[in-house]
Amino acid sequence: MCLVSVYTVYAEKVQxxxxxxxxxxxxxxxxxxxxxxxxxxxxxxxxxxxxxxAREYATDSRKVYKIGASFSSExxxxxxxxxx
Length: 84
Known about the structure:
Layout: E1 8-15, E2 18-25, E3 29-37, H1 41-51, E4 63-71, E5 78-83
Parallel strand pairs: 3-4
Antiparallel strand pairs: 1-2, 2-3, 4-5
């Protein structure tokens, strides 16, 4: 993502409550991604909330999207995803 993007991309960004898998910042939006292996998208979204990954953008004027995705180790593809 970092290599092909014209946006600001953070991979494994360290915050006080944990490490965010990926954040993509554009001029209008912030996308916060949490990935799970053989879990659920809801578990990923729950982690974003519980760890407060979006907290640093609370006063930011950009729209924040929280995206949870689960990868299947069996198929090697995304098996579940959700946006909040």
